[in-house]
Specification:
Length: about 160
């Protein structure tokens, strides 16, 4: 394995003359013709931490999650009719959890708004698919009806 280049240095320039390519190749390309063999990339090592400049506070879009040692159960959710926004899907699952205590008890599962539901305790459905009808109040005094299908994720069986 070749040694990486020293920090902030450039690779050595070959001193042997290159053969000029065929007519029609720009003069700048003639210097690099034929193309050099592809070498393994080694970025320069960081020499140290700088002292010039002004420190800033950096905010990142992630956070650390600490999960106690336990099992998480992953379920596939299918809501029909589909094509609903995530906000509506979350409302549907919230109504499902609050009205069907025989499945969820006191636990509050986590739903991603599309297809995945996670719970700390196994739902009492086994490997069976269950379908539940849920109604949400509509804007024009008609309820909107949805069918929610829950199955355990295949990797959790």
């Amino acid at each position: 394995m070749a040694e990486p280049f020293p920090p902030f240095s450039t690779p050595p320039v070959p001193t042997t003359p290159q053969i000029a390519p065929s007519p029609g190749v720009p003069p700048l390309m003639a210097v690099l013709w034929p193309p050099p063999a592809v070498a393994e990339f080694h970025p320069p090592l960081r020499p140290n931490f700088g002292h010039i400049g002004k420190p800033i506070f950096l905010r990142a879009n992630h956070f650390q999650v600490k999960i106690p040692n336990c099992c998480l159960y992953h379920y596939d959710i299918t809501i029909t009719p589909d094509k609903c926004p995530r906000k509506v899907n979350r409302e549907i699952i919230e109504v499902l959890v609050n009205t069907h205590k025989e499945f969820f008890g006191q636990q509050k599962p986590v739903f991603d708004g599309r297809k995945n539901l996670y719970s700390k305790k196994a739902l009492p459905i086994g490997r069976e698919r269950i379908e539940v009808n849920i109604s949400l109040p509509g804007g024009d005094s008609r309820d909107r009806s949805f069918t929610v299908s829950i199955t355990i994720h295949p990797k959790d069986t």
